[in-house]
What we know:
Layout: H1 2-20, H2 22-33, H3 38-52, H4 58-85, H5 92-106, H6 117-127, H7 133-166
Helix pairs in contact: 1-2, 2-3, 4-5, 4-7, 5-6, 6-7
Amino acid sequence: xxxxxxxxxxxxxxxxxxxxxxxxxxxxxxxxxxxxxxxxxxxxxxxxxxxxxxxxxxxxxxxxxxxxxxxxxxxxxxxxxxxxxxxxxxxxxxxxxxxxxxxxxxxxxxxxxxxxxxxxxxxxxxxxxxxxxxxxxxxxxxxxxxxxxxxxxxxxxxxxxxxxxxxxx
Length: 169
């Protein structure tokens, strides 16, 4: 867990430096020039340019950060509520440790919507604190289902907005 937190912290620090530090941006441009292949150099330069466009938008970045942390906290509390309903006796602190790791594992582009990787991650992590495999599997399936249900309103709004844009005025 400490390794994961350390790597995530280093990644956040590098991203913050790329956004807010002109010196770091210049160093990033110099490093991108050394990458092998024209495509890799172009991609790195484009990524750095895209990130640097946010350098003057501190308020917006702080708002997005706060909302992102809030959404992740809600996801953790949702998982805790599901686990509690299933009789899993793990404390909320364990969910705040495990669920972000599970979510990162589910983001790996290996399966559709993290199916399989999510179940494995739930079973592995919750198994370390004595949660039975059946309970962690049920929790993982309900957690993914809750995510799908939570995204349905946005999908409906997306489809409806797209339909309205196609209609003549």
